[in-house]
Amino acid sequence: MQGRMTINTVLTKTMKKITTLLLCYICFFSTISYADEHLEKDELLWQFSLGTFWVDSTMTQLVGANSHFSAPGLLIDAKIEYKNFYLNTHSGDFYGGSDLGYQLVIEDGWGIDAILGSYQQPFNESGYYENEDQVPELAGIKEREHDLSLGFAYYFNHGEFQTVTELVFDVFGDSDGWLFHFDTTRNFELRNWDVWLNIGANYYSSAFIDYYYGIDADEATAFRPEYVVSNTSSLYLQLQADYPIAENWVFSAGASGFIYSSHIVESPIVHSRHARVFFAGVKYVF
Amino acid sequence: MYFKMISFCSLLVTSMSYAQTKDEGPTEILNVMPSKCVALNEGRTCYTDVKFAVTAPDVGDYCLRESGTKKILQCWANTRTFMYTLNFGSTESISYELISKQKRDTLAVTTIEVNWVHKIKSKKRRWRIF
Predict the structure, then answer these.
(1) B101: domain range?
(2) What are the residue boundaries of the structural domains of chain A, listed by start?
């Protein structure tokens, strides 16, 4: 068992190094080769939006911790594109995270990007929300920080669907794991309404998911035994509707449901494997 | 925090009211409401019901038509004022003109502008919530 873990760790670290080097190599050489072909995209494109949203969310419940959040909140989004680079950032209580990408291959109907982003919600002894008091059931656990995963995304369109697959390694985070993501989106244009349905799945390597929901020896107590989380998957469904209220103003509303595979609740710090979000609000697009 | 939120909401409502009312500028002969159609993204067909209100200087026979294609929307005989509702749907701005059948002349021209909110189309259609 010890030997297998060591081999896995070495393999994961080697994969991280290979991924990083490969991405640097591809980005560098594709920048040179594509530079002349994409002169029309040399201009800097940017878009910021500021809005207020009501959000009601329930995260996968950690034992003893508050996993429900319901309040109005501010939302700040930024989209920046320059040459083949793009940056999408979201702040607020339900969006969250950023996507930094570089378009390596751009073809009709498909493309390949190098991507950097976060896929997992951080938490600590207080649960998901930092302003909460320490939760007795979580006391003594180490902080689980955001992953910062680097990898490739392959996009393709088929009929009315847009599908993306992503393979990323937590190169800059602490998990030493990897994650495979798949999702497909169907967009419905109903007069000026834009309604999209997104169905997705994630497959987390044991190292990745264990960093969040496993219990290390130095965290174990009489009530919280040591635990290793094996490879895990999750499924989710998202529905969002957007409507242009006026020039620069957009109304959005959406709902999402999410579920981990059943064994996640065997972790001593996980109480439920479901999560859901509802939101509605308006934003001003600059 | 809640005071800030209320202030921000007030600012939103005020700005939105301004955004909607600034489109209502009248013209003398040919009034159109609304004069702007807003879509989410460039290239997207924008839909709205546009109301034309005509107050011609004299009683006569008039027609409304598209400026570019010269397609007649509707004609009216022996009248001075009339209304017309157009089920507008276009990816680009379109001009309309009021013509007098007797004088074979264009009396007024107005344009329905098509604008869009997002300059950059989202590459990803999902949230990073979890």
Answers:
(1) 24-118
(2) 2-285
Contact predicate A74/A92, CB 8 Å: yes
Give yes or no for residue A31 having a pLDDT over 70: no
B48: domain CATH number? 2.60.40.1930
* Subunit contact B16:A120, Cβ cutoff 8 A: no
- Closest residue by Cα to residue A198 from B43, B130, B38: B130
Q: Say yes or no for a CB contact (<8 Å) between B44 and A47.
A: no
Q: Provide the token pair at A174.
A: 């602490």
Chain B residues within an 8 Å CB radius of A119: 128
Asked if the structure places residue B42 within a domain, the reply is yes
Angle, to 10 degrees, between the axis of helix A206-213 and the axis of helix A2-34?
Answer: 110
- B117 with A249: Cβ contact below 8 A: yes
Q: Give per-residue pLDDT as tens, A169-203.
A: 999 999 999 999 999 999 999 999 999 999 999 99
- Partner residue facing B119 (CB), from A47, A185, A187: A47
Chain A residues within an 8 Å CB radius of B10: none
Average pLDDT over residues B47-75: 92
CB A251 within 8 A of CB A51: no
Residue B51 has pLDDT above 70, yes or no: yes
Instruction: Report yes or no: B96 and B110 within 8 Å, Cβ to Cβ.
Output: yes
pLDDT, one tens digit per residue, over A222-277 is: 899 999 999 999 999 999 999 999 889 999 999 999 999 999 999 999 999 999 98
CB contact under 8 A, B124 and A88: yes
Q: Does the beta carbon of B17 lie under 8 angstroms from any beta carbon of chain A?
A: no
CATH no. of A2-285: 2.40.160.40
CB-CB neighbours of A217 under 10 Å: 6
Domain count within chain B: 1
Share of chain A above pLDDT 90, in %: 52
B6 close contact with A: CB closer than 8 A: no
Nearest-CB residue to B128 (from A59, A97, A245): A97
**Is residue B83 scored above 90 in pLDDT?**
yes
